[in-house]
Amino acid sequence: MPHPTTRRRLLQGAGAITLIAVGGAVWRAHDREVFATPSGAPYDPWAMWQSPDYRDTSLALVAAGILASNPHNTQPWIFRVSETEIEVLADTSRDLGTFDPYLREMHIGLGCAIENMMLAAPANGFSAAVDLAPGSLIDIERGGMVRAATIRLSQGNGAVDPHYEAIPHRHTNRYAYDRERGFPEDLLRRFTSMPENGDAVVSLFTEGEAFDALGRAIMDATDEIVADPEMIEDSHRWFRDGPREMARERSGLELDTAGLSPALLAAAKFLPALPAEQSHGAWADQTRNTHVPTAALLGTISVHDRYDRPQALAAGRVWQRLHLEASAAGIAMHPLNQPVEMIDRERQLEKEPVAEARLAAITGNPAWQATFAFRAGYPTRDAMASARRSVEEVTEAG
Ligand SMILES: Cc1cc2nc3c(=O)[nH]c(=O)nc-3n(C[C@H](O)[C@H](O)[C@H](O)COP(=O)(O)O)c2cc1C
After folding, report:
1. How confident is the model at residue 4 (pLDDT cuts 50, 70, 90)?
2. How many domains does one find in the chain?
3. pLDDT tens, residue by residue, 271-289
4. Is residue 190 a contact partner of residue 326, using CB atoms and an 8 Å limit?
5. Rounded to whole angstroms, how far apart are CA atoms 58 and 390?
6. Does 75 sit in the ligand 1 pocket, CB within 6 Å?
7. Same domain, 156 and 93
8. Of 13, 195, 369, 373, which is least surrounded by CB within 10 A?
9. Distance between CA atoms of residues 304 and 183, nearest Å
10. Is residue 209 domain-shared with residue 133, that is, in the same domain?
């Protein structure tokens, strides 16, 4: 039996350790902003997009462009700006490696930015025309800035498209959707009539064989990605570990937008970051248990050639427009691009094109190749804004 003094000391020691542990936990919870909504400079671009500093200048278009949807929030862009034109450059160093081996998704993201910029032009007194860089993604230059498009500006007084005002309200929503509520008929009709120019087609499924097959294709492709160590490592490079890293990078994916329940989110933020295999395993579970089964609508965007640069940009413009249209109507959306990511990966590894055949059987028209897949439905929770680099950080003088 320990001496009473020794026991008191021991108890004091234990008390001190508990205090340090609790203090450490409180400090860690504070440092990692476990219970806070992300805020600060990385989120300012959402509030500043119509800043008087940019109004009626080409920077106002950039401020709208950077809020666009883009793969893994890589923000693969630089804008070379003058008074009369904006060159949209693909920053090919901000890539996803084996997750996007042909920079196809990168170009879709650039197309999303271009759509926002074209919507912002009339609101800032410009008439804008876009010239998309030609060529194939199969042999695109790498490692630096590659021109993707040039937006030419002149004075104009055209009408402002209503999609413009939805720009800051569009966020990827990775929570469960309320499938019981179905999908609004009028929005379905509007989706069907987009795109208007024939560069891309949208296929929409709310039930039946094709709906089930697309859901299965998404889940199976996710499992295939999770079983590919290179793909998940390349994806994982863009996962940010806490607010400090996000404050530095202002890009990449964060837990707050991962669609986790409040309790799971707090636990995940508190604990050390999971390795790639586990975080992607959790993503596969979410895909199978939440994303696909709660979707009211599954859809694809197809083009004639998914490796043609202008067509990839055009697909991005369509996605951005669909997502803005849905945001304005209070409908949540979420890209689920795993089936097309697997098509790219099989091509890169020169494997039998199983993923290609799987998706072609669903979209059912050999003249069109799916390049984007998504889900939509009534939200059960609002999604949060993701981080962005500032206008100044991504702009250079032309
Ligand atoms: C080409 C492309 C592919 C994407 N693929 C996925 C995906 O498979 N899963 C997902 O959760 N989000 C996907 N996204 C959504 C992006 O991760 C999201 O747009 C980005 O993180 C910025 O967040 P925000 O849309 O909320 O602004 C994709 C976006 C684009 C443009």
Report:
1. very low
2. 3
3. 888 899 999 999 999 999 9
4. no
5. 15
6. no
7. yes
8. 13
9. 28
10. no
Tell how strand 126-132 and strand 201-205 pair up.
Answer: unpaired
Residue 367 covered by a domain: yes
3-state secondary structure 178-189: CHHHCCCHHHHH
Asked if the model's pLDDT at residue 80 lies above 70, the reply is: yes
| 107 assigned to some structural domain | yes
Domain containing residue 99: CATH number: 3.40.109
Q: Is 319 in contact with 108 (CB distance < 8 Å)? A: yes
What lies within 8 Å, CB to CB, of 71 at 6+ separation is 96, 100, 105, 106, 108, 109, 337
Residues 27 and 49 in one domain: no
Looking at the structure, tell me whether residues 204 and 72 fall in a common domain. Answer: no
201 part of a folded domain: yes
Measured in Å, residue 271 CA sits from the centre of ligand 1 at 25
The answer to whether the CB of 342 is under 6 A from ligand 1 is no
Q: Which domain holds residue 211?
A: 173-377
Task: Kindly state whether residues 157 and 204 are assigned to the same domain.
Answer: no
The average confidence (pLDDT) of the chain is 92
Helix ranges (H only) for 329-353 are: 338-348
- Distance from residue 228's CA to the centre of ligand 1 (Å): 20
pTM of the model: 0.93
* 301, 372 Cβ separation under 8 angstroms: yes
Q: Atom of ligand 1 at shortest distance to CA of 104?
A: 1
SS3 category, 126: strand
Instruction: Please give the angle made by the CA atoms of 362, 363 and 367, to the nearest 5 degrees.
Output: 140
Q: How confident is the model at residue 14 (pLDDT cuts 50, 70, 90)?
A: low
